[in-house]
Amino acid sequence: MTIATRCDDTDVRPTGGLLRHRDFRLLWAGQAVSSVGSNVTTVALPLVAVAVLDAGTFQVAVLTAAAWLPWLLIGLPAGAWVDRLPRRPVMVICDLLCAVAFLSVPLAAMLGRLTVAQLLVVALSAGAARVFFETADQVYLPVLLRPGQLPEGNAKLQATQTVSYVVGPGLAGLIAQLVGAVAALLLDALTFLLSAMFLLRIRTREQRVRPSQRSRSLRRDITEGLRFVIRDPYLRVLTLFGAASNIGLTGYQAVLVVFLVRELRLEPGLVGGLVGVMSAGGIIGALLATTVARRCGTARAVLIAAALTGPPALLIPLAAPGAGLAWPALGGLLIGLGVAIGNVVKGAFRQTYTPHHLLGRVTVSMHLLNYGTIPLAAVLAGAIGARYDVETAIVVMTAWLALTPLILFVGPIRRRRDLPAAPAAS
Predict the structure, then answer these.
(1) What whole-number distance in Å separates Cα of residue 402 and Cα of residue 202?
(2) Distance (Å) of CA 66 to CA 116, 126, 380, 399, 401
(3) pTM of the model
(4) CB within 8 A of 326, min separation 6: which ones?
(5) How far apart are CA 296 and CA 407, in angstroms?
(6) Percent helix, percent strand, percent coil in the chain, to nearest 5
(7) How far apart are CA 196 and CA 176, in angstroms?
(8) 207 — phi, psi (to 5°)?
(9) What is the pLDDT of residues 303-329, one digit of tens each?
């Protein structure tokens, strides 16, 4: 297990804010290029399956499920290991593994041996690497920044991530239109290599604790993180809301490309452009998140974000060729706005509220449910689409998403202006 080594004030809080914080800039740059590549994959991988391998609706949905299944399989032990290991090397290794996985796709295509089974293996491998990377990333940010800087840091990272939701699909569609979907995965591999290079240049180090301070067993570490989440009224309700909303979000997104290509007959370039526009609201949300939280309160900001994430989903099934594409574009914009605001506020809350020695385990315990529902949702959407049709699957999933904000009214969040700074027991 490792603990944060705080730098002196001249390193952690340079004049000019986080833009002049060298190590944060490197982390930011690494995440930026990696996020662009990952969002190229969200469109490129289904396009490869549909356009190159003629995969069915259920097969494409299973691809989405495979990318998130590792959260269910290895999520809990990954969180415990991240709390025991230095986080930056973990993140670098994960980037390199993702690069190798995505490079294997164009290589197999060149040899004429590409199959849907290989795409599934690639999705699973990259998904497993992302479990460790994202958990380590959440724990590493408080090593670089002071608690008061975390909202700004999270907002900047969230803004960059949501920009990648626009840029990545657009690039994937453009590259697929010009030279084929397989070539788009080369860009993804390159971004992971660049991310590893940026992370290797970070100077801040973590100090290992003495062996006597380690927990007695991996099982005890896992149990401790789970117990903290289950017993805490704020983390518990946020986890349930995240799990429920991800069912709807992932469900419609898992079959969206199939719907746009086969039902609406859109070209790959237009598919990437539309998915990018649908994600553009996240840029605005990330930029506004800290302002909304400051003026309305962090607890109320969570409720506002949930309201934007849920009901606007009902606009997506109204999609139609031509002017009818404005409906999913508007629905996606509002959903992205809500998701970004919620992610920034909840991310900063979790990082400051949770004792640091538990942060990796608490983060992955929440992600286990938040992300663990994603493969189930993708398979469910694919099954509905295969049994009935793709449009029915999208209607069911967006209707579910529209109802999920009601979950937040069960816990204490509805009665507060701001989320607490620390657990009541402390």
Answers:
(1) 42
(2) 12, 9, 13, 24, 21
(3) 0.69
(4) none
(5) 20
(6) 85, 0, 15
(7) 26
(8) -95, 130
(9) 999 999 999 999 999 988 888 899 999
